[in-house]
């Protein structure tokens, strides 16, 4: 197939595995918070590739980092290390509680590493019977067989044969039932410090604090899945900082590379020593291209003015959504923190989040859903006010049409 031959959406049905059902539009270029399709139609991007494009599309610091590294070194095996990986790891340890970093290519892989570390630590330190992993209903931790089993949505994990064992799902924000259930057999509790896919559910301060205390009481490790909440998304560099609760292990991906695939597991020296040589690995983990881009991304994101700006933008979104809702009351509440926001539909509009996504697309706006009843917004963290205003105007037009 010639490089310049036009490839359309129909080719997807011909050559791709049908586990996705993409929209009809095929984007071909992006700049900042705007995207253009094959017909040169322009869209405002409030989706950010599901909380990934944290600096928007083709941000100069990312483009420069990639181009510079592209002329130097693309890949090494883990028989050697490389400068971008070392610099990025050093910065992540300086910016967080962590002292040690493991690099992977995705959130699922970072979570896989986190779970394997937790299990290995428990075996080494307490013996094989300390193996229970507790996670939460509606939680999402990736698509590998282990992480999808730990995730709390049966629709994603059922139908693939016997699952990895000793995984228990509890109810998010229900401290009492968790306290009753936990024991010294519990190896780890894995949770999102703000549930993303499950509907943009924030933890109560009592709950998050209580989980930490229960983990300490039972010698269980607390794993925060910050794949979606991390790298400035909530207005803190990582969400745990804003909650005043420090995990033992943290996973991150999505925004970390700003669009370049990279994931990382962060932990302490004490825990890290249990993944000794040969216990875990990743061919591409710590790839110089990915690490060079991620370094540029976190240099930008961790600036105090960028993090402050996230909080400012959250307010612009909340004000704008409140205005739309005053005219067309369809939302019960706006949930979430920073630029991980979910507009939950009211009684009359249950099950219609996807209708809004489609209608918005027709108006030239890209949004997301988090379940059938929540419209999700995860735009660039540096999106400017004009783009927010334009996007909200398009959203209002979409809602007005549905409302009639």
UniProtKB/TrEMBL annotation:
Co-factor binding details: Binds 1 pyridoxal phosphate per subunit.
Pfam (any one): Aminotran_3
Sequence positions that bind pyridoxal 5'-phosphate: 140, 225-228, 283
Cofactor list: pyridoxal 5'-phosphate
SUPFAM superfamilies named in the record: PLP-dependent transferases
Location within or outside the cell: Cytoplasm
CDD domains (UniProt xref): OAT_like
This protein's pathway: Amino-acid biosynthesis; L-arginine biosynthesis; N(2)-acetyl-L-ornithine from L-glutamate: step 4/4
NCBIfam families: arg_catab_astC (TIGR03246), argD (TIGR00707), PRK01278.1 (NF002325), PRK05093.1 (NF003468), PRK12381.1 (NF009047)
Name of protein: Acetylornithine aminotransferase
Organism for this UniProt entry: Photobacterium atrarenae
């Amino acid at each position: 197939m010639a490089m310049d031959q036009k490839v359309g959406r129909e080719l997807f049905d011909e050559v791709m595995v049908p586990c996705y059902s993409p929209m009809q539009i095929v984007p071909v270029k992006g700049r900042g918070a705007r995207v253009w399709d094959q017909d040169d139609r322009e869209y405002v991007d409030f989706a950010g590739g599901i909380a990934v494009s944290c600096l928007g599309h083709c941000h100069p610091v990312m483009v420069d980092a990639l181009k510079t590294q592209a002329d130097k070194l693309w890949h090494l095996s883990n028989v050697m290390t490389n400068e971008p990986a070392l610099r990025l790891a050093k910065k992540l340890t300086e910016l967080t509680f962590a002292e040690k970093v493991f690099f992977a290519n995705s959130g699922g892989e970072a979570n896989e590493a986190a779970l394997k570390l937790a299990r290995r630590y428990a075996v080494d330190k307490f013996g094989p019977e300390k193996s229970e992993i507790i996670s939460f209903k509606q939680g999402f931790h990736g698509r590998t067989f282990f992480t999808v089993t730990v995730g709390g949505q049966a629709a994603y994990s059922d139908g693939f044969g016997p699952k990895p064992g000793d995984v228990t799902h509890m109810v998010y924000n229900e401290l009492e039932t968790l306290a009753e259930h936990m024991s010294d057999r519990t190896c780890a509790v894995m949770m999102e410090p703000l549930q993303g896919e499950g509907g943009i559910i924030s933890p109560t301060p009592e709950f998050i604090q209580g989980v930490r205390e229960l983990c300490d009481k039972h010698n269980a490790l607390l794993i925060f899945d910050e794949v979606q909440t991390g790298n400035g998304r909530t207005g803190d560099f990582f969400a745990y900082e804003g909650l005043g609760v420090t995990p033992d292990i943290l996973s991150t991906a999505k925004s970390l590379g700003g669009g370049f695939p990279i994931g990382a597991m962060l932990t302490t020296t004490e825990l890290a020593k249990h993944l000794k040589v040969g216990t875990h690995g990743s061919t591409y983990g710590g790839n110089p291209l990915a690490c060079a881009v991620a370094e540029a991304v976190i240099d930008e994101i961790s600036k105090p003015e960028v993090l402050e700006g996230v909080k400012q933008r959250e307010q612009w979104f909340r004000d704008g959504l409140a205005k739309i809702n005053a005219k067309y009351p369809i939302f019960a509440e706006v949930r979430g923190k920073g630029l991980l926001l979910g507009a939950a539909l009211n009684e009359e509009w249950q099950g219609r989040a996807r209708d809004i996504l489609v209608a918005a697309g027709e108006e030239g706006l890209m949004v997301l859903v988090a379940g059938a009843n929540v419209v999700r917004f995860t735009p660039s963290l540096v999106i400017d006010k004009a783009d927010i205003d334009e996007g909200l105007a398009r959203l209002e037009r979409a809602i007005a049409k549905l409302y009639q």
